[in-house]
Amino acid sequence: MNAPYDGDRGQGASGTAPLRGVPPEPPAAGHVPSPQHPESAQEPYVAPDPYVQDAYSHDPYRSQDPSAQDPVTEALYDRASHPPPPPGTYQEPQPLYQQPAAPPHAPDPHVWAQTPPPEPDGPSRRLPYGDDPTTTEFVGVDDLVSKAGEEIPEQDAFAHLYRDQQAPGQPTPAAVPEPAPAPAPPKKPAGRAASVLKSSALMAAGTLVSRLTGFVRSLVITAALGAALLGDTFTVAYTLPTMIYILTVGGGLNSVFVPQLVRAMKNDEDGGEAFANRLLTLVMVALGLIVVVAVFAAPLLVRLMSVEIAGNEAANSVAVTFARYCLPTIFFMGVHVVMGQILNARGKFGAMMWTPVLNNIVMITTFGLFIWVYGTSAESQMGVQTIPDEGIRLLGIGTLLGLAVQALAMLPYLRETGFRFRPRFDWKGHGLGKTVKLAKWTVLFVLANQAGVLVVTQLATAAGEASGRDGAGILAYSNAQLIWGMPQAIITVSVMAALLPRISRAAHDNDPGAVRDDISQGLRNSAVAIVPVAFAFLALGVPMCTLLFASTGHEGAQSMGFILMAFGLGLIPYSVQYVVLRGFYAYEDTRTPFYNTVIVAAVNAAASAVCYVVLPAQWAVVGMAGSYGLAYAIGVGVAWRRLRNRLGGDLDGKHVLRTYARLSGASLPAAILGGAAAFGIMRVLGSDALGSLAALVAGGIVLLGVFFLAAKRMRIVELNAMVGMVRGRLGR
């Protein structure tokens, strides 16, 4: 049974009840009762509570930074995404432990039934009993009877949501002017996170499609020209423009000029358009001069790439002709990169990743027409002496047209962003000359890398010519390396694309522990796929190449399979090297990667030379492929030790090494059994396309099954996490 109603028993004017047994506090001298509250004249005296009056006088946290009190919030706080507020807009923080003011109509815990607080003036359309009347809407009896909900004042923050629901002809409430709000710090545009994810997915899809179409392009080129001297001749001519571009403009353009371009677009009054026009004009002029010089020096460049080809009169003539068609692509490479970076700075990321697909499509079409007219290499037996001039012209024009289409396809995207190209030659005094000095280490990095490529090209072409067999030259080496590098580009690069922003932020915050943990995670997560794929190349390299390159003949395809097997296990240190170098780049250290590249290039060149001298000519390129992995294994040892010292002597080496050892232990029996199954099927069905397909499918199933069972028995945590993620994506 409820207690009897006793009104405002024990409550003062403020609505708070005095403590029982405490004498009332006498009114202060000079206190005048308020006319709105006459009862305050008889307000009893309330003595201070000795248990409450000094409870909040001492605040041990007042001198600390409020943002540093929560370790989780501080760890997840992204300073790059939350810039400081503009001057004059920062509000001083309120005391953390200040006693809140008593509400005007607070309930009294000592009273069972109380008088409800008074309703606001006029028809009520708010929730009663203390809710905030400016933010809480109430639709109830009062609203239905008085229709007060139709009288929505303009100052209501939600008024615009109901304007479309007003009856026709109903007058809109007059706008009530509000005081101008204080300037607020700039906020991120809504949906930016979703836009970044969408752009990242678009770029990743474009990269994947570009690599797949590039792989198809290599298959068509090999089918059209074969894996003998003619194929090596075109490979040398086709590789030459890329090497010259990287050595002259490419390295500095990507590492120095592009950051300057982005900075100008953010800071200049015109959005960096003038700087972009100057940069594009400078690059076009420089590349135009380089192309003119390179076209005239084509015979010397061919000799620089391969003495064996230059010494063969027919091969040299074909190589020089191909080179003079391909060398103008240097101009379109540079223009494409600059236009793509201008688009990236303006928030358009997809064009630069998807336009290379057009180049691959044009080249696939060109070489497809060549096969349609002259047949495959295995059918026509075409060589450097028998290839017609019309065929050379068709392939040369198609190669040049592909890069031209790739670059010109960027123009519509530039016009869409509002950028208009206007040549500008006022280069002095705008920072373009100073930025050249900043590219020193990057240019040296590229030079060391290309020096190793040049040595391998010379030795591989010489070995292919000396062997007299198909698939023993530079074309076979390039094709096998292309297949071998695809898992690295798809798996490791994707894993590090998600971790690299975290590593960079941790390095910027001087948190070596977080950098170590993220690098360890990247190494272990990528190893789950990289290690078994490396052993799969070792076990199934021959059926894989005899299936993909069946149109070139059995001899050349089998030789490429042996080269792929030699590359196989080198994929593991190659992937580790990529991840470890991201740690140096996070600290903006480009000098250490340069020294590491010098070591890798020197070991690769020296080991390749030893293989060329010691091994028979038909196995020399196979030894060079193995030397590539050996060079990266040595480079990983050096880079690992330097990064470990950089992070305070700890790089989670035991955990990483244990993961790689377990994965290798599970992959070894899988590779043995899978390779044996594939070899047995090829002995029975033959090594043609059908037999290779059956061997590859059966060997792959055995390899994956044995690896999965062995890894489950070893309880490899990273594999279980990956399987769980895949099941979650599939909804199982």
Task: Report the end-to-end length measured between terminal Cα atoms.
Answer: 57 Å
Report the average pLDDT across residues: 74
What is the approximate shape? globular
Helix content: 55-70%
Oligomer: single chain
Q: Which stretches are low in confidence, meaning pLDDT under 50 for 5 or more residues running?
A: 1-23, 28-32, 34-41, 123-154, 156-197
Give the number of DSSP strands. 0
Radius of gyration from CA coordinates: 37 Å
- Structure class: mainly alpha
Note the beta-strand portion. Answer: under 5%
Q: Secondary-structure element order, as H and E?
A: HHHHHHHHHHHHHHHHHHHHHHHH
Helix tally equals 24
Biggest sheet details: none
Q: How would you describe what is shown here?
A:
Residues about 1-25, about 30, about 35-40, about 125-155 and about 155-195 have low confidence and may be disordered. It contains 24 helices and no strands. Helix 5 packs antiparallel against helix 9 (about 330-345) and helix 15 (about 440-465) packs antiparallel against helix 21 (about 615-645). The longest helix has about 40 residues, at about 230-265. It has about 725 residues and is mainly alpha-helical. It has helices spanning about 70-75, 140-145, 190-225, 230-265, 275-295, 300-305, 305-310, 315-325, 330-345, 350-375, 375-380, 390-410, 410-415, 430-440, 440-465, 475-510, 510-550, 555-570, 570-585, 590-615, 615-645, 655-685, 690-715, 715-730.
